[in-house]
Structures are given as C-alpha cells and as structure tokens.
Design a protein that fits this description.
- With 324 residues, this protein is α/β, with parallel strands linked by helices.
- The protein folds into two domains: 177 residues, Thiamin diphosphate (ThDP)-binding fold, Pyr/PP domains (Rossmann fold, 3-Layer(aba) Sandwich); 128 residues, 3-Layer(aba) Sandwich (Rossmann fold), CATH 3.40.50.
- 37% of the residues lie in helices and 20% in strands.
- The chain has twelve helices and 14 strands.
- Helix 1 runs parallel beside helix 7 and helix 8 crosses helix 12.
Length: 324
C-alpha cells in the first residue's frame, strides 16, 4: 500500500491499461514531450513511443474526430482535453457522431475523453467550468466524475475497457490535494455505481466530484451538533445509480443536492425530479439544492471564492433542514 495523489492515480491507471493492451493509446495537446499540462502522461512517451503517445495540434475537434476513427477501427484511444472547457470545440464530434454510432448502426466507439474540469485554481471563465450537463443530456455517452484517488484509478481503467464513449471529468483542484493508500494489486471501479462515503441517518447529501470533500467536512462539523449527514458520491452521472440515491433518501427523509456546476439545468434539478417522482412519501422536508450561481466563473480569487459552493453552505442548509 502506498500513498497516491488523485493525479498520480489517473496516471497509474492509464499506464496499466496501456501496458495491458497495445490497442490503448493517448492523444492530445502536449501529452507527449511535455507530459501533459498537469503531468498525467509524464514518462509515457519514453515508455510507449510516439505511435501510442501522440502530440496533436490545438484543435479539439480534430483530436476527437481522429480518436473516433481509431476507435471504430478497433483501437482504444484516450483523448485529453487540456482543459475541459475546450471540449465544446469537439461538441459535434462527440454528440452527433460518437454518441450515436451504437444506435445508428450497432458500432461501438470505445473512446475515453479526459477533461480536467472545475474551479478553485483561479483559472477564470475559460479554464474552470464544469461542462458535464451538456453530455449528460446526450443519450449514448457515459459521464464519470471521481472524487478520490481510488475511484479515479479504478474508473479510468473501467472507462478504457468500456465499449462505448466515456467522458471522464477530473477535478483539477483535487489533483494534488487528495491522496490515499491504494491497493498494490489491480482493481477496477464499476461505472454506474455510487458509493456512500459516509453513513448517516439524518440528512442525505447527494453529490460528486470535488464537492464530496465539502460534504464530508460539513458532516464532521455537524456531527458535533448531533446531526448525521449521509454523503452519497455518485461517481458517475450516466449511468446513474438511482437505487443507491433513493435508498439513502428513504433512510433519512431529508435531502441536499450539491454540485459545483451552475444551478439552472444542473444535475441537482434532475435528481430532485427523480426523488419527487419516486420517493416523495418518504420526504420530511423540501429537497434543497446547493450549487454555483448562474454566472460565468470569475477570475478574481475573492469572487471565485464567493461563486463556488462551500462547506459553510452545506452546514447552513443542513442546519435549516435539521430544524425543519
């Protein structure tokens, strides 16, 4: 067992999959000689060679288009968007081609698109977004957002092995801030299975990505007040582990839906609808959302701090619900 950071866990998972299967290769801007903007692919070029570690032009549509073609020919490309924000440049390739090949003519596209996403690093409005909902809304895509080093490694390995396109959103604030002991033996984390990161009986906090850690911090504080939060980490948004979410809601009767993405059209709204439709009779209070506001992400550090959901927000809303 060794202590491993979130970013190193992703690196290890990719390295293991490329060592296991010669059809796996990586492509993207600066993934080769430079080792990736966040060093996820550091050392890959020397180990696997330039035919499997490909530096590309600054053209996300070309990166994804080439990767789709390779996937259709039996390879397993892992395409890196240097920042998840620029995945929008490849939107047509992803939503109108990769997502629909299985439906249109039975062809799988075993493609992974890695996207370093999220705020907290003062990157401004073009380097800090959480673009997951554009793709959650597109049938045919799987959308993954791990919060821990263990989940990041296990899920990237599962994503590479999947027969259909997987969008893998890595929260870059977590890259070197989150670390844990990982097993020395190989392991996978299944796509589509949530994880209860902390059990509790009073309020369910349903969340994913970096916000899992805010929820866990809030749970520690509130435990001192006698309020026990249950923190459910979705891990993947599509497919959604609806059963785990609904079981938690049945158990506690009160729900906070927490995500860093902006509010309108965010995943919390979808979850709120599912909960209201399927377990309404178990609710003992209103379903509460904690999200970012509907604005671009500010560059100014104080404004970004105001923009992002915080542990104090979870504590405040949980206390309101506990007293409801």
């Amino acid at each position: 067992m060794a202590t491993t950071t979130y970013v190193e866990a992703i690196r290890q998972g990719l390295w293991e999959e490329m060592s296991r299967d010669e059809e796996v290769f990586v492509l993207g801007e600066d993934v080769g000689v430079y080792g990736g903007a966040f060093k996820v692919t550091a050392g890959f070029l020397d180990q696997f060679g330039e035919e499997r570690v490909m530096d590309t032009p600054l053209c996300e549509s070309a990166i994804v288009g080439a990767a789709i073609g390779a996937a259709l020919m039996g390879m397993r490309p892992v395409a890196e968007m240097q920042f998840a924000d620029f995945i929008s440049c490849a939107f047509d390739q992803i939503t109108n081609f990769a997502a629909k090949c299985r439906y249109r003519w039975g062809a799988g596209v075993p493609l992974v698109i890695r996207g370093p996403s999220g705020g907290g690093i003062h990157g401004g409005p073009f380097h800090s977004q959480n673009p997951e909902m554009y793709f959650v809304h597109t049938p045919g895509l799987k959308v993954v957002a791990p919060s821990t080093a263990y989940d990041a490694k296990g899920l990237i390995k599962s994503a590479v092995r999947d027969e259909d396109p997987v969008l893998f959103f890595e929260h870059k604030y977590l890259y070197r801030r989150v670390k844990e002991e990982l097993p020395s033996e190989e392991f996978l984390v299944p796509i589509g299975k949530a994880d209860v990161k902390r059990a509790g009986g009073d309020i369910s906090v349903i969340t994913y990505g970096a916000m899992v850690h805010n929820a866990l911090e809030a749970a520690e504080v509130l435990a001192g007040d006698g309020v026990e939060l249950e923190v459910v980490d979705l891990r993947s948004l599509v497919p959604l582990d609806k059963a785990t979410v609904l079981e938690s809601v049945k158990k506690t009767g009160k729900v906070i839906l927490l995500h860093e993405d902006t509010r309108t059209g965010g995943f919390a709204g979808e979850l709120a609808a599912v909960i209201s439709e399927e377990v309404f009779e178990y609710l003992d209070g209103p379903v509460m959302r904690i999200t970012a506001p509907d604005t671009p992400i500010p560059y100014s550090p104080p404004l970004e701090e105001f923009f992002l959901p915080k542990t104090s927000d979870v504590i405040r809303v949980a206390r309101h619900l506990a007293a409801y």
